[in-house]
Structures are given as C-alpha cells and as structure tokens.
Amino acid sequence: QVQLLESGGGLVQAGGSLRLSCAASGATSRRYVMGWFRQAPGQNRELVATMGWSGGSTAYSDSVKGRFTISRDNAKNTVYLQMNSLKPEDTAVYYCTAGPILSGRAASYDYWGQGTQVTVSS
Known about the structure:
The strands form two sheets. Strands 2, 4, 5, 6, 9, 10 and 11 form a seven-stranded mixed sheet that branches. By secondary structure, this protein is mainly beta. The protein has strands at 2-7, 10-13, 18-26, 33-39, 46-51, 58-60, 68-73, 78-83, 92-99, 111-112, 116-121. The model has no long low-confidence stretch (mean pLDDT 96).
C-alpha cells in the first residue's frame, strides 16, 4: 500500500503560479510512476502530467504543455507540479497518483491522494 498526501493548492489570480507537492509513504520501495490528474465539477478526471520513476519519461496534457512542469525527488518520495501562467480553466481538484506504468488513463493507476483544490480567478 502507498499513501499519497498532496499540498500546495489554493486560490491564485490568472497568470499566477502555484507549486503542488505530493509525498508518498508506505510501500515506496517499488519504482512507481507518479503523476497528477485533475477533475473539474461535472467533468471526468483528466491527466495533467505524469513521470516515470527515473524522471526520464514524462507525459503532459496538451492544455498544460509549456506552462506546467512535473518533477520528482525519489530520495524524498515526493513528486511536484510547478504550475505557471495559470488560467481560470485550470480550476479543479488536483489528485496525485502512483502506478506501475506511464499512462494517460486514470484506470492505470493504483493509488490516489485525497486531492487539493486549485482555484484560478480571472
């Protein structure tokens, strides 16, 4: 079992930045892919960004490419999401996730955090 705890969400004006963090605990000896999904009200959960264990493989949603950056520190069992040039349409609950393969499908991931709210005002 892996437990994931997100932090760093909040309210920001359009054009601003936020940095999300996700700390993993439990069975962290396995080399999990870790990533971020988001879900806005009435919408499906969608991929934001995901990264392989070594950091050499990443995938981003087209809507965040060039604005968001995913990174990880395996010594701290933590993954980060740096979000710049935020837009109102980025408003959502952001979920940290971990799983065995790099995928854009939520069903491919085994573990999920509780989520952290990100709200971008116009």
